[in-house]
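Extended Data, panel c. Modelled sequence:
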Amino acid sequence: MAVRHQLIAAEPSAVWAVLGDPSRYADWVVGTACSAPAEGRWPEVGSSLTYTVRLGPREFRGRTVVRRHEPPQWLELEAHSGPFGTARIAFDVRSWGDETLVIVDEHPLRGFAGAVHNIAIDAFLQIRHRDMLARLAKVVERESRASADPSAPASSPRHDRSAAGGPKTGR
């Protein structure tokens, strides 16, 4: 299993505001070029979002489904990545004084990734999570500062409403 943590200089409610916006995942999930709501009301159990990953000229589409949603502490997702299989991604959001401790735990669950899961995959996930949690902290802290100071810009320059059927974020 790949477990990593990040201390974020904001209240848990600020973290949940970002986790609760399916169009924002591409702002902080490493490798995701865009994301948009799909089914249900995110992040209710059973709701989903779609995402696109770009590797050079190729695009891969996937879907993430909420499996557990127990605010203010738990959000567990199952990311479906086509032929690669699925992964369980769990967020544990904890109040830590005036800050928030976010712990992410990810492991391959089904399909090819689950069958070949090994220490090398966990090492890759550790690196990815380090970057992902740093990006999440940056987004949350920027928006937290902006809500404390309404004259500061809060939104990401990456937002684009040109996605089919909903908001899109792109790089």
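The chain has four helices and nine strands. This feature is highlighted in the accompanying rendering.
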